[in-house]
């Protein structure tokens, strides 16, 4: 095959999306307001800095530069306290079988994540050396929905954007894949991720036959 696969991390490979939500929500609560799970969809795939900007907008708050930085650090500290307890069991159901199939069939695959904690998390769940390339929040300057992260990943895998298959759980990430002219597969709800070429609730719903077909098409 001349095709390759790019995985988002949070909410696709591992269920860390829930930890991000808990940590951001605590930050908002400590600042005296709250936000909904629906609003949280807008934070998925978005960088740490842009997430805090959005949340402060919702709370109609402005922070000094120093306080902004301090809040980002506090959020990350809180988030990492959840991450510390992670192990292989946190790999989302059905993901391992897809990764095993790609490895067995020599299909190149990369990580394309906005997170600066990506390598740390992959290590915790024992997947760090499986990837042919890793592109994360420390490698990019433009956040999803900009296609930068996925274009760099495809380039590292030596595959063309139109031959790249992207798994994403966020609206911004699906848009980034579409902006890169890649094949986008949404993991989550159709009503949220309707812009994707295909949508599955989770990886247990993805048949290896489907992956095979996409790779040979
Ligand atoms: C994305 C998550 O993968 O990474 C966002 O969907 C998160 O929720 C972003 O804010 C940045 O992550 P980190 O780990 O660098 O704060
Ligand atoms: Mg995600």
Automatic annotation (TrEMBL):
CDD domains: HAD_BPGM. Keywords: Magnesium, Metal-binding. GO terms for biological process: carbohydrate metabolic process. Substrate binds at residues 8-10, 24, 43-48, 51, 75, 113-117, 144. Pfam families: HAD_2. Its cofactor is Mg(2+). The keyword Metal-binding applies. SUPFAM superfamilies: HAD-like. The record marks 113, 144 as: Important for catalytic activity and assists the phosphoryl transfer reaction to Asp8 by balancing charge and orienting the reacting groups. The keyword Plastid does not apply. GO terms for molecular function: beta-phosphoglucomutase activity; magnesium ion binding. PANTHER family: 2-DEOXYGLUCOSE-6-PHOSPHATE PHOSPHATASE 2 (PTHR18901), PSEUDOURIDINE-5'-PHOSPHATASE (PTHR18901:SF38). Belongs to the HAD-like hydrolase superfamily. CbbY/CbbZ/Gph/YieH family. This is Beta-phosphoglucomutase. It comes from Salegentibacter mishustinae.
């Amino acid at each position: 095959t001349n095709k390759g696969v790019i995985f988002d991390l949070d909410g696709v490979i591992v269920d860390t999306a829930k930890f991000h939500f808990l940590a951001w929500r605590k930050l908002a609560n400590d600042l005296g307001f709250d936000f909904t799970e629906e609003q949280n969809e807008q934070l998925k795939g978005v960088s740490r800095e842009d997430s805090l900007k959005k949340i402060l907008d919702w709370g109609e708050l402005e922070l000094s530069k120093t306080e902004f930085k301090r809040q980002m650090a506090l959020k990350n500290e809180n988030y990492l306290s959840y991450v510390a307890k992670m192990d292989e069991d946190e790999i989302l159901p059905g993901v391992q079988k897809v990764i095993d199939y790609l490895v067995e069939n020599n299909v190149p695959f990369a990580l394309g994540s906005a997170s600066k904690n990506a390598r740390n998390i992959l290590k915790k769940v024992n997947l760090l050396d499986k990837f042919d390339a890793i592109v994360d929040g420390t490698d990019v300057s433009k956040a999803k929905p900009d296609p930068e992260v996925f274009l760099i990943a495809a380039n590292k895998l030596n595959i063309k954007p139109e031959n790249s298959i992207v798994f994403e759980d966020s609206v911004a990430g699906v848009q980034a894949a579409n902006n890169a002219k890649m094949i986008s597969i949404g993991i989550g709800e159709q009503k949220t991720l309707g812009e994707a070429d295909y949508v599955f609730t989770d990886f247990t719903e993805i048949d290896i036959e489907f992956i095979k077909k996409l790779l040979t098409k």
